Amino acid sequence: MAVWNPWHGCIKYSEGCDNCYVYRMDKKYERDSSKVTINKSFSLPVQKYKNGEYKIKSGDILYTCFSSDFFLDDADVWRTKAWEMMRERRDINFLIITKRILRFMDCIPPDWGDGYGNVIIFCTVENQKRADERLPVFSKLPIKHKGIVCSPLLGPIDLGDYLCGIEQVTVAGESGYNARVCDYNWILSIREQCMEQCVDFKFSQTGAKLRKDGKLYYIKRKYQHSQAGKANINYQKLI
Ligand code: SF4
Question: Measured from the CB, is residue 99 less than 6 Å from ligand 1?
Answer without folding.
Answer: yes
